[in-house]
């Protein structure tokens, strides 16, 4: 008898230090909970939980499921694994958990041992990704449905405006304004089409330094017109990357345009290209602009979410999509009235030794 008692004490000591929430209960009454389980339910001490019914902590909508599983366990001795449950903590906070249970002998009587894993963060992340995925699908459907329909009459309107412009030269300023706005609509439709129609892309070996130089040459006129200087700094030994050149150029042009527009009174942009850890390259674009509020940074990859007065929020979203397809990542940090740093990290071709 002493040996059995000592064995049970050792058993309790082991499960007390396990990094999982453990509950032992007879029928409905909780007989034992370890420290992890105590913390998970928001208890100050074990007595806040011991002796209570397990159904005190299970959301009423999940009672029937819990009863069914417990019946299976007791009557058919079927071990259950990763059963989803919704629990109510002592502070009334709702948490989502996965429960694995089995029958055991505890203090000489039949009981149930459950290992409970808190998956609240995982579930919220999954739901957020699903919501984002649904939003992207909706954007794609909208784009496919309306982009071509808008472009056809837009071409006709543009043609007539150009005709009127040639006849009424005294009103040229107004015609130019209308044509400029029509072109902006055309560009927005172009962004929709990128989302709606995935194109077959061909990846090739490319020197990232050469690609960045081309981008800076393309954007420099806009920078100079806005009193912005771009300073480029390359590390000497940067490996080649595998990419779709035009897509990557689109990403860097978009980031640099955003940086220029964030500095209406002019300023400088530092563009730094350097090796980052093993087989990766970092392209940092640092501006002195108005900055982005911290709470907005996580939403920058979402459609229709923009800090610009005339933006659609699609430019950055497309950039995230392109970098993701290149097995890279975009990191954004910002301080209001100090500036924004956008870091693009891309894999490089491993150098042979």
UniProtKB/TrEMBL annotation:
The keyword Nucleotide-binding applies. It catalyses: ATP + protein L-histidine = ADP + protein N-phospho-L-histidine. The keyword RNA-binding does not apply. Keywords: ATP-binding, Kinase, Nucleotide-binding, Phosphoprotein, Transferase, Two-component regulatory system. Pfam families: HATPase_c, HisKA, PAS_9. Its EC number is 2.7.13.3. Residues 145-350 form the Histidine kinase domain. It comes from the Bacteria. Residues 7-77 form the PAS domain. NCBIfam families: sensory_box. This is histidine kinase.
């Amino acid at each position: 008898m002493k040996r059995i008692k000592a064995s049970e004490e050792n058993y309790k000591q082991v499960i007390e230090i396990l990094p999982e929430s453990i509950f032992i209960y007879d029928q409905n009454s909780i007989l034992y909970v370890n420290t992890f389980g105590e913390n998970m339910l928001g208890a100050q001490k074990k007595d806040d939980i011991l002796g209570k019914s397990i159904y005190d902590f299970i959301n009423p909508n999940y009672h029937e499921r819990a009863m069914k599983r417990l019946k299976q366990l007791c009557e058919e001795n079927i071990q259950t694994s990763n059963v989803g449950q919704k629990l109510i903590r002592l502070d009334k906070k709702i948490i989502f958990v996965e429960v694995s249970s089995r029958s055991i002998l505890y203090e000489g009587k039949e009981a149930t041992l459950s290992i409970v894993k808190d998956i609240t963060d995982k579930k919220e992340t999954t739901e957020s990704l699903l919501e984002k995925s649904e939003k992207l699908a909706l954007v794609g459907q909208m784009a496919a449905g309306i982009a071509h329909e808008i472009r056809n009459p837009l071409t006709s309107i543009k043609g007539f405006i150009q005709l009127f412009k040639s006849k009424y030269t005294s009103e040229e300023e107004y015609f130019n304004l209308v044509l400029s706005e029509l072109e902006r609509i055309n560009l927005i439709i172009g962004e929709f089409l990128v989302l709606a129609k995935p194109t077959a892309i061909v990846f090739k070996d490319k020197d990232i330094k050469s690609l960045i130089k081309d981008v800076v040459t393309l954007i420099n006129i806009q920078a100079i017109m806005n009193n912005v200087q771009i300073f480029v700094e390359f590390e000497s030994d940067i490996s080649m990357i595998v990419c779709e050149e035009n897509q990557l150029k689109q990403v860097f042009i978009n980031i640099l345009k955003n940086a220029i527009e964030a500095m209406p009174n002019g300023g400088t942009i530092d563009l730094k290209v350097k090796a980052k850890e093993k087989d990766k390259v970092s392209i940092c674009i640092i501006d002195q602009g108005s900055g982005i509020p911290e709470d907005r940074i996580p939403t920058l990859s979402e459609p229709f979410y923009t800090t610009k007065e005339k933006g659609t929020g699609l430019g950055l979203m497309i950039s995230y999509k392109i970098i993701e397809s290149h097995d890279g990542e975009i990191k954004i940090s910002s301080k209001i009235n100090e500036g924004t740093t956008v870091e693009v990290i891309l894999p490089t071709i491993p150098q042979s030794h």
